[in-house]
Design a protein that fits this description.
4 strands; 3 helices; alpha+beta; four-stranded antiparallel sheet; homodimer
Chain lengths: 100, 100
């Protein structure tokens, strides 16, 4: 990665049954986070290793910490966390990567 | 991601002191995993979120499960796990991602 750039990732499991309509609805809403200004290389992913309890992943990149801060503070992100994430995610882990 | 493709990631912490020569030596050895056939988009990264206990990350992609299996079974990978990883890594988590 280019120095200063940040890859923000979060892996998570939902409270909803696998393949259910509420699961699909949550993932569709999560996918809209990619439209927030400053978000680059946005991906909604399946977590497929059996060596951990998580089922999904989000990955996105920011040019710098200011872009990352702008995302965190953006009303669409704040609203998503408060209205959807806190209520529907049962387990998660955030990992952020930068150039070593 | 393209269907069938797998992004293998592992985040980890070393038993060595931060910034020490043994730490640098381990990271240099880990960086050589990127030369194993089938490994694409190899990255050795710093983990920078304060929301977890990990300090480093490895990320690599495989075209398919066969390429991933080939990496896991490659003598250079097996040797690295047995001689370095098991002795020097104090905490880790593997996460593998595919198209959702």
């Amino acid at each position: 990665m280019i120095a200063g750039r940040i890859r923000h990732t979060v892996t998570f499991t939902l409270a909803h049954p696998e393949g259910s309509a509420p699961e699909r609805d949550f993932l569709e809403a999560a996918g809209q986070l990619g439209a927030i200004p400053g978000v680059e290389a946005f991906e909604l992913l399946a977590q497929v290793s059996p060596k951990n309890p998580y089922r999904f992943g989000l990955s996105m990149e920011f040019a710098d910490q200011a872009a990352y801060d702008g995302y965190n503070e953006h009303p669409d992100h704040v609203h998503f966390v408060q209205r959807r994430w806190l209520a529907e995610v049962s387990n998660f882990l955030e990992l952020d990567y930068a150039a070593q």
